[in-house]
Amino acid sequence: MAVTIKDVARLAGVSPSSVCRALANPDQVRPETRERVHSAARNLGYYPNRAARGLITGRTGNIGVVLPDLANPFFPSVVKSIQTQARRFDYAVFLSDTDEDPAVEVPLIRALAKQVDGFLLCSPRAGDDEIKAFAGQTPMVVLNRRINSFPSVTADSADGMRQAVAHLHALGHRRVAYVAGPRTSWSNRDRLRGLKNATTSYGMDLVEIGNVAPTVEGGTAVADLVIASPATAVLAYNDLVALGLLNRLQARGVDVPGRISVVGFDDILLAGLVNPGLTTVAIAKEHIGRVGVELLLELMADGERPATARRVLPTQLIVRGSTGPR
Amino acid sequence: MAVTIKDVARLAGVSPSSVCRALANPDQVRPETRERVHSAARNLGYYPNRAARGLITGRTGNIGVVLPDLANPFFPSVVKSIQTQARRFDYAVFLSDTDEDPAVEVPLIRALAKQVDGFLLCSPRAGDDEIKAFAGQTPMVVLNRRINSFPSVTADSADGMRQAVAHLHALGHRRVAYVAGPRTSWSNRDRLRGLKNATTSYGMDLVEIGNVAPTVEGGTAVADLVIASPATAVLAYNDLVALGLLNRLQARGVDVPGRISVVGFDDILLAGLVNPGLTTVAIAKEHIGRVGVELLLELMADGERPATARRVLPTQLIVRGSTGPR
DNA sequence: CAATATTCCGGAAACGATTCCAGACTGGCC
DNA sequence: GGCCAGTCTGGAATCGTTTCCGGAATATTG
Questions:
Q1: What CA dihedral angle connects B72, A272, A180 and A127, to 10 degrees?
Q2: For chain A, what is the total number of helices (H) and then of strands (E)?
Q3: CA atoms of A186 and A192, how far apart (whole Å)
Q4: What is the predicted pLDDT for the residue at B251?
Q5: What is the helix (H) or strand (E) element at residue A110, kind and residue range?
Q6: What is the pLDDT of residues A237-278, one digit of tens each?
Q7: Which positions in chain A touch B135 (Cβ < 8 Å)?
Q8: Which one of A53, A109, A204, B170 is at 20 to 30 Å from A135 when CA atoms are compared?
Q9: In B, residues 110-139, which contact A (CB 8 Å cutoff)?
């Protein structure tokens, strides 16, 4: 069927081992044979079977990416930057979407583990302990979450929230609401923590509104609760939720930002396209992926070292039309 | 390092071959040994190395997905449905983003070919001939494009365009513009063809406006050309381009749909969230992925058969606020 | 020219799993 | 008890590649 190293060897009139050397360590063979092998490989269209190679070298050349929901525009951005950086180092990407189900994460990782050299876990929803069980077994870098004994890349939510709250405070708001994301999301807890600190230090009231799915529907579902609350501004777990709020508020005829100001988180593409534009805390999505890959490559190279590097990337408030004076 | 079949065999006190049988064909071993093997595997946390298995069975259990740009929200939707369907049949997904560069497609496919059982090519940008070179070698299904000798899944653009044009015609529009997508995109040619047929049969004038990148920026870049044209309505290659137009039109103070109506294509999530909502031709994105996987599985099972199944999925005009009477 | 050092190449083993084949054991039956 | 059929199991070969080891050929040196 497919062309193997033996076919190349036969055509070039050398042994398989020489073919391997000619292609991998060109300076270990005579220029003449090297040329013969190369042209034979070219003629037959030979590409080594990376799986077979991986069997013996222990390196597959693949990295696994696990994320909760590809339909959330935040993740494709991250994946894209992972791809770009991975390809630069000749790695291919295995992608898995868990559909926000914590229960499938661990089995998925286990099933994929032998086919990849390491994992990038984006916003994993499983419990710390379940994930920690992999410590030392498979190189892993966690994105958008911090877990002991794993390197991680996170955004500085606390500072982002501080910027957002400062902005709202300056506009005269004193009571704000937070629409929380999934209970299993570390980012949600992190953002809430940052928000609480910020509102406390500015002496503002904070109303928490139930946990919702991190989707547009999640936002629309609680928009009326926000209206009914005493808050004059609302911060959402992420942009999708914020957009859901925005949509429902407009449908109810509530003036944004006149009556209620809305702030999102992530700065996905949509945020700049809706009307009014969504004020949001931007995360450097391309950075997350790139830094994640860098960390993972280091970890895979160094092997043993605990390598609990923690990169915290800056956030930046992007002010658009959805926030205004109280 | 990792636990192999031998470790399980040793712990269970049987040979590796028996372990294999106990796990793969449970009825070929005595219940007692089967139980011993299972518990040994469970205790050690044994998961077979799929790459090694693939070497001998010829099946990797992976399918490769190649697409031009994950940042276009259309593709994540498709990928997600591919994932879902693939997992149902115990397949994992290899993802590759080509960054709209036709030149990297073929090398990418070749490099991945040995690691997957088949490919789903989403909107491939490479030339027909380059792709045809794979015919018979690797099972492949093409999405959003038709290529001889490959099964394909496409949307019925012609009908979608007919619906859109009928809608605009009924609103009184007689001159429409089309903002074309990438020259290398089959969908672009297909949509343009459908549009031409529709405008001709309705006796309407069609202005074509240059090829742009299939992004928001592509749309904003030519919005002023649209304004300067005699058209009272514009159809865009896809929703991103339409949103770019919409944005720039609003920035220039052009009334939509009062002065110009805008129609997109794809019905991505954003389309329903902007203001005014974007009238667009919806494609069943989840269907594309699902049907694509189904076709690929059939193709991989049947092997030889030409299998040039061509599924054309229906399109549906979604009318929102961006279109109105002339 | 002989002895040594160096370069280059082929053979064999290995990676982890599966599968075929043959042998060992069990049970049934006469 | 002996024979046959059937069930169950272990050993060996295999997939495609890499790597180690030893031998042959070449180059270097005295």
A1: 30
A2: 12, 12
A3: 10
A4: 94
A5: helix A102-113
A6: 999 999 999 999 999 999 999 999 999 999 999 999 998 999
A7: none
A8: A53
A9: 110-115, 137
Where do runs of H (alpha helix) occur along B114-235? 128-132, 157-170, 186-201, 216-228
**Of A216, A126, A125, residue with least CA distance to A179:** A216
Note the pTM of the prediction, 2 decimals.
0.91
Closest residue to D8 by CA to C1' distance? B29
Q: Three-class SS of residue B203?
A: coil
Residue type, A114: K
Position A306 pLDDT exceeds 70: no
Owner of token pair 């590796």? B16
Which residue type is seen at B321? G
Most confident of A145-149, A317-321, B49-53, B102-106: A317-321
Q: Can you tell me the distance from the alpha carbon of B259 to that of A305, in angstroms, rounded to the nearest whole number?
A: 64
Q: Residue B321 — φ and ψ, nearest 5°?
A: -80, -10
CB-contacts to strand D (7 A): A 1-2, 4-6, 16-17, 20-21, 23-24, 46-49, 52-53, 55-57; B 13-18, 21, 27-30, 32-33, 52, 55-56, 114
Q: Which sign, positive or negative, has the C-alpha torsion B237, B242, B248, B252?
A: positive
Mean pLDDT split into 10-residue runs, chain B, 326 residues: 90 93 90 92 92 92 95 96 94 93 91 92 95 89 94 97 98 98 96 98 96 96 97 98 97 96 96 94 95 93 72 97 96
pLDDT of residue B185: 95
